[in-house]
Amino acid sequence: MREMSTSPWTRPHDWAEVVLGVVAVLTPLWMETDTAAMWTLIVLGALVAVDGLVSLAMPGLVYGEGIQIVLGALLFISPWVIGYSGMMGAAWSSWIIGGLTMIAGATALPVANAVHDRTAGQH
Prior knowledge:
mainly alpha, elongated
């Protein structure tokens, strides 16, 4: 199981990040948003998805998981910072997706560290 999770394109944590990013990008299609909320969800969601794809392709990139945690935190606080906490659908989407992104990034961090440590001597 450990070998599968350290191979490119097989880590479930990173696939979860990609799915969460895509859901955030698509959220304005089914939730009421204003312009600021829409672009916040689209931009942060796209960044989460792209970083998840990069982490899938290169499982030893430790900083990619750290970036996921930061992006998840930004998505989580965005309803208050950007001012769309009154739009309950968009706000709850941000809180849930942001929280799950932080959890996925934190869960994938030890795996990325292990892969990085194992491949560090091969360069």
